[in-house]
Amino acid sequence: MPGRKPKPTRITLQDVARRSGFSASTVSIVLSEAPLSRYVAAQTKERIRKAAEHLGYRPDIFARSLRSRRSNTIGVLVFDISDPFCVLILRGIEKAMQGTRWMPIIMDAHNERSQFERYLDLLMERRIEGLIVVANWLFDEGGLLEKTSHEAVPSVVVGRDVSEQGIGTVIVDNETGGYLAIKHLYELGHRQIALIRGPEKLIDSTRRWQGIERFARESGWKLDPSRVRQLPDALDPISPFEGGLELTAELLATGQEFTALIAFDDLTALGALRALAQAGLSAPRDCSIVGFDDVPLAALSTPGITTIRQPMEEMGAAAARRVLDTLREGEETSREHDPVLEMLPPALVLRDSTAELR
Amino acid sequence: MPGRKPKPTRITLQDVARRSGFSASTVSIVLSEAPLSRYVAAQTKERIRKAAEHLGYRPDIFARSLRSRRSNTIGVLVFDISDPFCVLILRGIEKAMQGTRWMPIIMDAHNERSQFERYLDLLMERRIEGLIVVANWLFDEGGLLEKTSHEAVPSVVVGRDVSEQGIGTVIVDNETGGYLAIKHLYELGHRQIALIRGPEKLIDSTRRWQGIERFARESGWKLDPSRVRQLPDALDPISPFEGGLELTAELLATGQEFTALIAFDDLTALGALRALAQAGLSAPRDCSIVGFDDVPLAALSTPGITTIRQPMEEMGAAAARRVLDTLREGEETSREHDPVLEMLPPALVLRDSTAELR
DNA sequence: ACAGATTATTCAATCGTTTTAATATTGGTA
DNA sequence: TACCAATATTAAAACGATTGAATAATCTGT
């Protein structure tokens, strides 16, 4: 049979209606489980479902969205998907969305503000019902979400603290993270500890610093400021690596003694590792190193990097849950009863880049 | 002014029609640049555009898609987005799609076949007009795309060769890649070269092997099979690391002499690096190592990994172009005149994990 | 001056749902 | 008996665009 067309006709609600013997209205009500379906006889439902299945009916999402004014989609705007940090958050978001009637629609802004805005526009055009921004590397957040959305759709930012702008935020508890990092090194016997702080504009960096200071106060020990460096403000996703490399080399060149180093994040730690190697030194023999984040490659480098883990999947899931909760509330009660800022606990992950002071 | 509602009403085509003084038809024709717009007076177009802009009109994509039967979206189904390999391909796809009227809609199958099928279904439901599958780590492709699509929408797979199933494929030229890797080591003076092949089921692995054999033939040198190992078939994204670690340890344990090692990919190389370190050896001093892929972390480890680069962004872009070309052709002539298999050239990237034989 | 092509615009049907309001059909109760 | 509430189903009007066919208006050549 040569010219037999496969399936020239779409199966519509009407088809199901005809086959089941009920009207399109009833079929719609049953299949979409609208409130009115409460009143539909069980037997009717049964027959309609059978018919739909038999015909292989799939609702047309465009018609559906057009009429119902809902898209069943949540926009997920990622600042830079090439950052492994973001990827794991995505996972969490997606898993949390599994099995709900929402689906994520993901866009990647490539680290460019203009793209970010363009894509945000595109998302709004697609009538997203909620928005999650995954922001790893984001300065100058001023009014990022003001222009569009945020008023219109429930939004959450994960990875950067924008709670001061009144925008829902999910982040790791940076202060505790800093505390854990220094505590670990201190307990290993290190006292001469160098530090590479994050970019100045990044609030996270400050928080981690505060955690470190708190530990210093509590333990009556003092961090020597001459061993502290700071990464430059830069958007490039591998700039922390370069920064870690250069700043560590610089620290070594000054002749400053240090037996351990806390890096702003794992990439910075990798840079530090290389700087050590270039100076003929190695971790943890000559210097212990602690990173931050626990991106996948922290486990794969040699030595594996001891680091402060951000629970990235959980953060993504938390962000998704927040948005979905707000959405569901909207259906019944009024919203806004949860705190704007949600902080998840970090954890120390022991690997091979740190060791007891000899 | 307290209770002033922001924008309760959507701006529709009708509004633009009224304001510009033309009918909805004309407005639609002008704004969507339909073929008929050829006949619309320049002045009319001007007026309509002005009106649309002034009102801030945005077409409703649901209504548009419902009526026109096109979604202007291309489905992008990624096998495992946590693989950096995939991420760069995504970049390429996205960039190639920039400025066209299509937009990618990305889904991540988490390395699970069942998810893959579910998401493929979801994509079809959204009436994607084209499909790009980004498959890094994909065995058992048998009839992956048969069930759905592939007949219905133009499809391309990037990263794995499925051209034998008649499905468009974009991959790197693995044979040349293997050739380049061995050639590099040979020219550095290495003759005792160990090899960790990829999983048996992966055709890529065989191709790279063929490249290596070709070089051996051409140079009259012979690879000792006792120095060859093979990664197990496994789906886990970090299994190559573990495999590289174990197999290298095993090679070292046999007492086999080797001054260089070709790893199946960069992760395998990282595993090998660690195995060396655990044996108190280091690259490139005691053993040179070549990877494959050039994922971002190849540059970040210490030593940086000399590797065979897959032009991932270009591959993504090529895949996107293929799909878009087919789509555009469909509008005019008949399709299918391009080859099913498209191979892009790899390149040797020199870093610090290889060195001349002392 | 007229047929026919070309240019310019519009009418009205349609895409496939959801939803509001209306219509039947019950059974229970005043 | 008549009325009301609860149960069960449906008719018909949206939702906001696109498009094929129809209508006007203008031009071209004979």
Account of the 3D structure:
The structure is a homodimer of 358-residue chains. Chain A has 358 residues and is α/β, with parallel strands linked by helices. Helices cover 42% and strands 15% of the residues of chain A. Chain A contains twelve helices and twelve strands. In chain A, strands 2-1-3-4-5-11 form a six-stranded parallel β-sheet, with helices on both faces. A six-stranded mixed β-sheet of chain A has the order 7-6-8-9-10-12, sandwiched between helices. In chain A, strand 1, helix 5 (84-97) and strand 2 (103-108) form a beta-alpha-beta unit. The longest helix of chain A has 20 residues, at 312-331. Chain A is elongated, with a radius of gyration of 26 Å. Mean pLDDT of chain A is 89; it is low at 1-7. At the A-B interface, helix 4, helix 5, strand 2, helix 10 and helix 11 of A face helix 4, helix 5, strand 2, helix 10 and helix 11 of B. The first copy, chain A, binds a DNA duplex (30 and 30 nucleotides) through residues 10, 12-14, 22-26, 28-29, 32, 34, 36, 38-41, 44, 59-69.
Which terms summarize this structure?
homodimer, 358 residues, alpha/beta, 6-stranded mixed beta sheet, 42% helix, disordered N terminus, DNA-binding
How would you summarize this macromolecular structure in one to three sentences?
The first copy, chain A, is α/β, with parallel strands linked by helices and 358 residues long. Chain A has helices at 13-20, 24-31, 42-55, 61-68, 84-97, 113-125, 174-187, 203-219, 239-253, 266-278, 296-300, 312-331, and strands at residues 73-78, 103-108, 130-134, 155-158, 168-172, 193-197, 228-230, 260-262, 288-293, 306-309, 341-344, 347-349. Chain A contains twelve helices and twelve strands.
